[in-house]
Write a structure and sequence with these properties.
By secondary structure, the chain is of the alpha+beta class. Helix content is about 50%, strand content about 15%. Strands 2-1-5-4-3 form a five-stranded antiparallel sheet. Helix 1 runs antiparallel to helix 2 and helix 3 runs antiparallel to helix 4. The longest helix has about 40 residues. It is rod-shaped, with a radius of gyration of 29 Å.
């Protein structure tokens, strides 16, 4: 549904009206009108957030009052389905459920925005950035890393970092960082031999930092090529 105000609030109005229409054309649902409108409110909260959900709650309560709870004029449906007491319970449950859904939606959007910002920083960085797991498997490489090592990301992801940094140098650094996860050992830049895709040796300076994502320890290697062009 996106973040368009028109679509969010349009859905908040359209969903309760659709629920009322469903009750008119499908009498089977008329035994549980509160649940039909509650479904419309949940969809509104999922798609639009808390404020549109409040609009859906107000419109749903109005439609329920006019059609089911002591209808004004000739009622379309028979019975008041519990009267004002159930109306109050419906509004309370709707408010609580909408607030819970909106909080989850807000957290999800914040996480998505944060990930987008970090990805933008990584993709525009002047240094090579490679994210690995605790076994050295490559999970992400930025465009600069592709340039330094001459391999596209699709060929590097899933490989071990040893493919780019042969020898035991990076493994020793990784072991050191894993042993000091709790103390957050300060990262130190080290010089290591690297290998270009065409087989040419490289000299790089690498710093490994630690992070956590969804309970999983990850390591970010920031690499700068320092090969002497006159060698």
């Amino acid at each position: 549904m996106g973040e368009s105000l028109f679509l969010r609030y349009g859905a908040a109005v359209a969903l309760p009206l659709a629920a009322a229409g469903l009750l008119f054309v499908r009498p089977l649902f008329t035994e549980t009108p509160f649940f039909v409108f509650l479904g419309a409110i949940v969809l509104s909260a999922v798609q639009g957030g808390l404020a549109p959900a409040f609009l859906s709650i107000a419109l749903s309560a109005l439609l329920l009052r006019l059609l089911f709870v002591h209808p004004i004029g000739p009622p379309h449906f028979v019975g008041d389905f519990g009267g004002v007491e159930r109306m109050a319970g419906f509004v309370l449950v709707s408010l609580l459920l909408s607030s819970f859904i909106a909080a989850i939606r807000r957290e999800r959007n914040q996480l998505r925005d944060s990930e987008a910002r970090y990805r933008l920083l990584a993709e525009t960085a002047s240094d090579a950035i490679i994210v690995i797991d605790d076994e050295g498997e490559i999970l992400y490489v930025n465009p600069e890393a592709e340039k330094v090592f001459g391999s596209p990301a699709r060929q590097l992801v899933g490989q071990n970092l040893a493919r780019l940094l042969p020898g035991d140098g990076y493994r020793a650094e990784l072991r050191g960082m894993k042993q000091h996860l709790d103390s957050r050992k300060k990262a130190v830049a080290v010089r290591l031999p690297g290998l270009h895709q065409n087989g040419e040796p490289l000299l790089v300076e690498m710093t490994i930092g630690t992070s956590s994502h969804r309970g999983r320890n990850l390591f970010t290697a920031i690499i700068r090529e320092i090969t002497d062009p006159n060698r």
